[in-house]
Amino acid sequence: MPWILLTVAGLLEVVWAFSLKQSEGFSRPWPSLVTVVAMAGSFWLLALAMRALPLGTAYMVWTGIGAVGAFVVGVLVLGEPATAMRLGAALLIVAGIGLMKLAA
Question: Recorded GO terms, molecular function (predicted)?
């Protein structure tokens, strides 16, 4: 169960990162509201997952899901460049998440 909570927390991090971009500096109310709600949910689920998972593992997986997820959304939805170096960096993050999960 902690891994499910952590995964959902990481996905909510992607949601709040995207909605933060859409809020245009908190100048648009609906994306701003989505940002705040998704942030609260993400932190809450991370806290619940940390009851059973080590700090370093939970935090690395959470931020990794958020970082790679935001990168994917940026490329697929916002048309950001998917250069070889950026793809390689995302792959390294995914590999690190996998190794951290194995270590836990």
Answer: transmembrane transporter activity
Residue spans per domain, the chain: 2-103
Give pTM, 2 decimals.
Answer: 0.90
- As a whole number of angstroms, the distance between CA 36 and CA 15 comes to 10
**Digit-coded pLDDT (tens) for 20-51:** 999 999 999 999 999 999 999 999 999 999 99
Residue appearing with tokens 């909605």:
19
